[in-house]
Structure formats: structure tokens, C-alpha cells
Hints:
- The protein is mainly β.
- The chain has a single domain (3-139), classed as Jelly Rolls, CATH 2.60.120.
- It has one helix at residues 132-139; strands at 12-15, 18-20, 27-29, 42-47, 55-60, 65-71, 74-79, 84-89, 94-98, 103-107, 114-119, 128-129.
- It starts with 11 loop residues before the first strand and ends with a helix.
- Pfam families: FdtA.
- This is WxcM-like domain-containing protein.
Amino acid sequence: MESKKTTLESIKIIEIPKIEDKKGRGNLSVIEKDSIPFAVKRVYYLYDVPSNAYRGGHAHKNLFQFLIALSGSFDVVLDDGIKKTTITLNKPNKGLLIPKGIWRELENFSSGSVCLVLASEEYDEEDYIRKYKQFLKYKG
């Protein structure tokens, strides 16, 4: 999928298998094999983000991301250059697949929230589009 043609319809919420402990000791979720449509090459997480701060504010030319709210909640504002939508992540067994070519901003972090990010590529500054006007030009 060419990133210039990627639209909001390419974004998916993926349910992560949840194993419930019958003894009441909590739940376990597993990401393996075909849980997400890419091999994970980078893992990082955001935490201690003030509620009035935002993260992201960029798009990627090649990288796919899978975001999970491990704790708490936050909003992900997504933009394909034509349409925008906001998705709230607040369940540790549901993740948001963001394909390449989509602008993203994370905001409204609840107290104690943790955002886990699984990425399809290692960090490469050349893959980032950090200015919104450049993003719109890139999308054509």
C-alpha cells in the first residue's frame, strides 16, 4: 500500500487475545504470530505524560505502528490529509493499527496512562514527516 494513498479506512482496531484467569488473578494478553500484520522491530512506551500535553504530531512514509493503552486512556487524532477522526484507547486488550502515511497526534492522557507502541521499523529520522504542511504536500 503506497503511503500517499493511505486513508482513514486503512486504520484498524485489533482485539488482542485475552486469557482470563479462572482463579481471579488477573488477565493476560498476548501478541504473537499473526496478531498484527508486521514484524515488530522497535518497542517503546510513553508514560508520565501531563494531561494537557500532546505527543506525536507527525506521519511516517514507511513505518506502521500499533498503539495500546496499557493503563489509563488517551485520544489518538488521525488525519489522512482529507478527513480526520479521533479514537480513544482505554483497553489493554485492544490496539490501534496506524499504517504509513497517516498523521497522528496523541492527547488527553489520563493520570497514570501508559501507551505501548510496536513499530514495524527501527528509528529512522528520514521516515518522519514532522510538519503538517509538508504532510499535505506529500499526500498531494
